[in-house]
Amino acid sequence: MQLKDTSLFRQQAYIDGAWVGADGGQTISVTNPASGETLGTVPKMGAAETRRAIEAAERALPAWRDLTAKERSQKLRRWFELMMENQDDLGRLMTLEQGKPLAESKGEIAYAASFIEWFAEEAKRVYGDTIPGHQKDKRILVIKQPIGVTAAITPWNFPAAMITRKAGPALAAGCTMVLKPASQTPFSALALAELAERAGIPKGVFSVITGSAGDIGNELTANPTVRKISFTGSTEVGAKLMEQCAPGIKKVSLELGGNAPFLVFDDADLDEAVKGAMQSKYRNAGQTCVCVNRIYVQDGVYDAFAQKFQAAVEKLKVGNGLDEGVDIGPLIDDRAATKVREHIEDAVANGATVLTGGKAHERGGSYFEPTLMVNVPHSAKVAKEETFGPLAPLFRFKDEAEGIALANDTEFGLAAYFYSRDLGRVFRVAEAIEAGMIGINTGLISTEVAPFGGVKSSGLGREGSKYGIEDYLEIKYLCLSI
Ligand code: ADP
């Protein structure tokens, strides 16, 4: 594994400040997608261990909530610093279990740490309100308080950032949290728990349980002590969790699937558009929920854009994420590669042409060639479903109205992107597209300072920014008669 600090590699879960195995001793193995080798194991826990983590979070809550905001802030700040001090090791661990190129992993650690830093600052700025009374003798105050015990379930595509984006605001607000990371990438989560412990986050405030998603999810949603669940993952699982949370009227934040459109208008700067499309499409081998899924190019620039884009795609280097100069690592597993293949086959059967790539990579395993298709019909599967892989399909459109209609022709509404230099068009299109986030003349939009989240079937709530902490606070109104 070759970590400078080998104690960051933890193969036990972290409950109530202790490193523990599953009650029955069962484990699940974690595989390196680049080689198929087993990296290690983590406990296969279920309802009983989850209940204990929730009870610990409940016990830890009063003392954590009662610290001053500044005291919580200082501990979070230390956690942030420790993440940055261990960026190399954390990045390496991430590439080993997730597959993304090392530079991207280290970038994600900095991005993940930035949420802890940001919310360490925001902890001190949870302001209330005073409202002019409705009667002469009344004074009205609004205060904000932590929701209480919270839970998070996170995916494998961003093994660190999806955790800190939830744990940062939760802990800053004074909530405690039980986290279940994805079973493909638990080591990044456990390393974060190790650093949280070193940062002085008290036991029970942040626990990490690994194991059966169904059993753990059932307990987290059914247990009345948990007052809020934050989930990032598929729309299907998100809907199920929301349903499970309904009887207990638990708050839910959901960051779900996307199907991001990327529109290139006739007046766009094509070189910039190619750059943005490359960044948004092929980052993490196309496995991000804000990855461009559908590229719509206006008739007048279609061929020129396709040509420039093809040249850029052909430069991408596929390989083991630990090797120098690699742009695209393996996909997370074979199932992911199968989905990319299916989307290509479906589009080609319906008239699309593959300009470059199009098949499994010669390295084998779950490696897939970066692929570009042109003349893709609007009826193709890839127009409707998120591919989550290195496949870029180019569609044509005639005018602004058609571009907007095509962009909105989806149940999803997470991210959208477009390129245009016409100021009037920029506002018209940005306001008309149904998405929570719009990249205008840029393919990179993620930052801790801006609100991340979707509309329609892409989710509920916002993460990051000053809005992100609101998801972990309750509003209480005090009516005082004097
Ligand atoms: P993906 O397709 O990106 O793996 P999933 O929605 O399947 O997305 O997984 C995201 C997270 O949700 C993972 O941590 C996974 O283990 C968890 N998960 C999957 N199924 C369930 C479930 N039924 N209840 C709770 N969590 C689940």
UniProtKB/TrEMBL annotation:
<dbReference type="InterPro" id="IPR015590">
    <property type="entry name" value="Aldehyde_DH_dom"/>
</dbReference>
<protein>
    <submittedName>
        <fullName>NADP-dependent succinate-semialdehyde dehydrogenase</fullName>
    </submittedName>
</protein>
<dbReference type="Pfam" id="PF00171">
    <property type="entry name" value="Aldedh"/>
</dbReference>
<feature type="active site">
    <location>
        <position position="255"/>
    </location>
</feature>
<dbReference type="InterPro" id="IPR016163">
    <property type="entry name" value="Ald_DH_C"/>
</dbReference>
<dbReference type="InterPro" id="IPR016162">
    <property type="entry name" value="Ald_DH_N"/>
</dbReference>
<dbReference type="InterPro" id="IPR016161">
    <property type="entry name" value="Ald_DH/histidinol_DH"/>
</dbReference>
<feature type="domain" description="Aldehyde dehydrogenase">
    <location>
        <begin position="19"/>
        <end position="477"/>
    </location>
</feature>
<dbReference type="InterPro" id="IPR016160">
    <property type="entry name" value="Ald_DH_CS_CYS"/>
</dbReference>
<keyword id="KW-0560">Oxidoreductase</keyword>
<dbReference type="InterPro" id="IPR050740">
    <property type="entry name" value="Aldehyde_DH_Superfamily"/>
</dbReference>
<comment type="similarity">
    <text>Belongs to the aldehyde dehydrogenase family.</text>
</comment>
<dbReference type="InterPro" id="IPR029510">
    <property type="entry name" value="Ald_DH_CS_GLU"/>
</dbReference>
<dbReference type="InterPro" id="IPR010102">
    <property type="entry name" value="Succ_semiAld_DH"/>
</dbReference>
